[in-house]
Design goal:
mainly beta, globular, 13-stranded antiparallel β-sheet, 4 helices
């Protein structure tokens, strides 16, 4: 017979000890079953319950009897429900229940009615918790829920374990982890304090699938038995099958995986497939060896049906202060002759042994300083491309050493780099430079100087190049620019038709600049920004072979001497923003005026221009004091920049911005028009700044909401207002559709080698056809472009019209547990090949497949199949 424990004085102590022991035993279930879950908040509507506070169970023999340990299920005093933050480790245990009952005849203690036990950050909830003193076993039944401090949650209907945490049983278990992994099992047993066995179990990582249990999960692994051995930190699956959308895909008699406590583990990774008609089908079976937590080895042998065996290995080693890695791959080709052009000329891959050694690393010297490297040693530049070893989008395999420093208002970068191109068009890496070194330093003083900000910059560069990089202005002109042929005025390498993109030989420069600026806002709201700067440069260059290639460039040919350049500048930027509110929103009108005074730029053309060749005049650099992109050129002469910036913000959150402006050359030599005459790359020519009155620049931006944005910017001729450069960009999402589009227009720039108008559009469209399913399409289309293969030696037209440049199609499935995608891409005329001694282009076709299971692994395949569509002649 069960009775409420109210009578003897000894009973409360016995009840407290029994309940305490039951709770401690119940905690064993958390470890044994892996169960976990967040605490459910108690509300004012929760049923009345009794509360009992129990001290540390490890000191149970010395604890005094708690006052009023048992109460009837009457209304208790109003108290807030406990939370994790209110039950940190080391605090007393709290037991809440509608009723505590002790049966002296059977020596059983029972907590009934919304039982909640809180201890050491853990939460145990059940309808009934019973502890048998004689057998030392505890049992929780009815809506059992156990929460661990880690956030893991276990649900079950019936749990029973012994007091020693070593053996137990759970019926109808559902386990949920914070990273959204889910395990379900009909029965769970724990033996020896180490092995937990899940019978008729299922594992998935699909959290969204739980919203509709009538549908099968995206993917699930069902097993007759799942065994977790904690000492091995390994989970074994027996008689398992893999299902997708309820359809069996694969059957696995037995496999194993590390448990969630393991960050990385040794084992065979997902195999890969790669290859082409030149290499044959390649199969890769990688093995990962977790030697120690801080270093490991990846061995990924490949076998190609046509070229043979290729070992690949990668070593990684981490330290508290940094890391390094070494990657190596090599192959002794069975058939190197397939890497031959149709005219019999050998490609760079036509050799018996090919391989690469790549290492990267970085170490912290101090909290602000670090040193590192990224080095590549390759047999040839085509190896990574031919054997699919390059990263997606990788176009270079440079080697670099660096030293970096970062302060609160300063940064330092010292590096040496050898540039190597690995694309199909990089047939001559001799024109790429080696820097030894490049130093960049920038510092802003913490304290103000004369009420303003004082800063300085330093740039030091030294580079060398084996061969000059020369290009033609007019490809139809009989004057060629072939550095491999003798220099003959009017015939070859003549400045009248040649541009120098990089000199051969050596070039060094040291530059420093100090600057001061201050921002003042007067009582009328006018913003005044005076600024002062002084910059100095010292350069030296030496052309290779006594100027054999570039001797016709008279200013560059005056080498083997130091050139100096000083450029002081003083100026003022003035802004006067006006703000007005109306029925539609708030409008800000801001006129901007900037005036700069400085002397003429010195030594234009005598100093090589290596880093300032990119010059795009638009709204983003209208008010920059120096519009050149690098250090080798510096803007000189007096200049006035002015514009108007108008912004309207609507009450619904959308906004419109309009900007319009122009730049005027006031006095001195115009650096941009002079650059068209003397700069080795004609930087400044056709830029819109090479006249006294520059072209107009304008911008229009409209932001409807986070789902739609449109922008337009352009440069317009200052006389005719004809478009010289235009860009349109739009991004929008409309229901199931998502669209991104870009349009570009460039007027001819004959002084830079572009004789025809260029215009193109690029767009990407996706449509959600069903939940989680999306079809995707993207294309690039050129309305007009310049044919880069056209020369005076062939009959190819200089202008091409209505050409598709790229196409991508795909279908993708994505949810919180899986991604599955199929893609096809075609880049038109993207690869240069030689057929019958004539350089021509061909399309590049590629298939891509990606399959990712969260918590399991990823398989990505990308295959160039251009030879399937257009086999090369052998």
């Amino acid at each position: 017979m069960l009775r409420a424990a109210r009578r003897p004085a000894a009973s409360p102590t016995r009840i407290a000890r029994s309940a305490l022991t039951a709770t401690a035993s119940l905690l064993a279930m958390v470890v044994a079953s892996g169960g976990l879950a967040p605490l459910r908040a108690q509300t004012a509507d929760a049923p009345a319950e009794a509360r009992s506070y129990i001290l540390d169970p490890t000191q149970v023999q010395n604890q005094p009897a708690p006052p009023s340990p048992v109460r009837s299920a009457g209304p208790p005093a109003a108290l807030a429900g406990p939370t994790f933050s209110s039950t940190p480790p080391g605090t007393p245990m709290q037991v809440n229940a509608g009723q505590l009952v002790y049966d002296e005849r059977t020596s059983r203690v029972s907590a009934r009615g919304n039982v909640q036990i809180y201890y050491d950050g853990r939460t145990i909830e059940a309808d009934v918790v019973t502890y048998d003193q004689r057998s030392g076993r505890v049992r929780a039944t009815g809506n059992v829920r156990i929460t661990e401090p880690s956030g893991n949650i276990a649900h079950g209907q019936d749990m029973e374990f012994d007091q020693q945490f070593t053996n137990g049983f759970v019926r109808s278990l559902n386990l949920e982890t914070p990273d959204r992994r889910f395990i379900g099992a009909t029965d769970v047993t724990r033996e020896g304090g180490d092995t937990t066995t899940f019978e008729r179990a299922a594992y998935t990582a699909c959290a969204s699938c739980r919203a509709d249990l009538s549908k099968p999960p995206t993917w699930v692994i069902k097993a007759k038995r799942i065994i977790h051995r904690e000492s091995e930190r390994t989970i074994y699956f027996e008689d398992a099958r893999f299902e997708m959308f309820g359809v069996p895909i694969a059957y696995m008699p037995r496999f194993w995986a590390p448990d969630p406590t393991v960050r990385k583990a040794s084992g065979i990774l997902v195999p890969g497939i790669a290859g082409s008609n030149r290499t044959g089908i390649g199969v890769e079976v990688p093995y990962f060896w977790n030697i120690q937590p801080n270093y490991d080895l990846l061995i990924a042998p490949r076998y190609y049906s046509r070229q043979g065996f290729m070992p690949i290995a990668e070593w990684r080693h981490g330290f508290e202060s940094g890391y390094y890695s070494i990657r190596a791959a090599g192959i002794r080709q069975n058939d190197p002759g397939v890497f031959t052009y149709s005219n019999g000329t050998n490609e760079v891959g036509n050799r018996e042994f090919r391989g690469i050694l790549h290492t990267t690393g970085m170490f912290r010297i101090t909290e602000r300083w670090s040193v590192g490297w990224d080095l590549n040693l390759m047999s040839d530049t085509a190896f990574l491309r031919d054997y699919s070893l390059s990263l997606p989008g990788q176009t270079e395999a440079n080697s670099r050493l660096f030293l970096r420093g970062q302060g609160p208002r300063s940064w330092f970068d010292l590096s040496a780099t050898r540039y190597v191109g690995i694309t199909a068009t990089d047939v001559d890496n001799k024109i790429l430079p080696t820097t030894h070194p490049v130093l960049d330093y920038f510092k802003v003083l913490d304290q103000s100087v004369l009420g303003g900000e004082f800063s300085w910059r330093t740039s030091v560069v030294s580079l060398s190049r084996e061969a000059a990089d020369v290009s033609r202005k007019n490809p139809l002109s009989p004057i060629t620019c072939d550095r491999t042929q003798p220099r003959v005025p009017g015939v070859n390498l003549d400045p009248a038709n040649c541009l120098v993109n990089g000199i051969d030989g050596n070039y060094s420069r040291a530059s420093a600049e100090v600057a001061w600026r201050r921002r003042v806002i007067d009582a009328m709201g006018q913003v005044w920004e005076p600024f002062v700067s002084v910059r100095g440069d010292v350069t030296y260059h030496h052309l290779k072979d006594n100027s054999a290639v570039l001797g016709s460039f008279s200013r560059l040919a005056q080498d083997d001497r130091a050139y100096t350049r000083i450029m002081p500048a003083v100026g003022l930027t003035y802004r006067y923003p006006w703000i007005a509110g109306n029925a539609y929103g708030t409008t800000t009108v801001e006129p901007i005026l900037q005036i700069i005074a400085r002397p003429n730029e010195q030594n234009i053309g005598y100093i090589p221009n290596e880093d300032s060749q990119s010059l795009v005049f638009d709204d983003t650099n209208l008010f920059q004091t120096n519009k050149f992109s690098g250090w080798d050129r510096v803007e000189g002469g007096g200049r006035l920049n002015y514009g108007l910036n108008v912004t309207h913000r609507f009450f619904n959150g959308s906004s419109v911005n309009i900007m319009f402006g122009q730049s005027l050359h006031l006095f001195g030599i115009n650096s941009f028009s002079a650059g068209a005459l003397y700069d080795m790359a004609a930087t400044g020519a056709n830029s819109g700044l090479d006249r006294q009155r520059s072209d107009y620049v304008a911008r229009f931006q409209y932001q409807l909401d986070r789902n739609f944005r449109f922008s337009a910017r352009g440069r317009f001729d200052e006389r005719t207002f004809a478009v010289q450069r235009g860009e349109l960009d739009a991004t929008g999402r409309f229901g199931h559709f998502a669209l991104t589009g870009t349009y570009g227009y460039l007027a001819p720039q004959p002084d830079l080698g572009y004789l025809v108008t260029r215009s193109a559009v690029g767009a990407a469209l996706s449509y959600t056809v069903a939940t989680n399913w999306t079809v995707y399409g993207a294309a690039r289309f050129a309305f007009q472009r310049q044919n880069l293969l056209a020369t005076n030696a062939n009959n190819l037209p200089l202008s091409e019209s209505n050409k598709v440049e790229g196409l991508t199609l795909g279908v993708n499935y994505l949810d919180d547990a899986m991604q599955l995608g199929f893609y096809y891409s075609r880049d038109f005329a993207a690869e240069v090949v030689t057929l019958n001694n004539v350089a021509t282009t061909r399309d590049v076709h590629r298939f891509m497949f990606r399959f990712n299971l969260r918590t399991i692994g990823e398989l990505t395949l990308s295959q160039n199949v251009s030879n399937w569509f257009n086999p090369p002649a052998q």
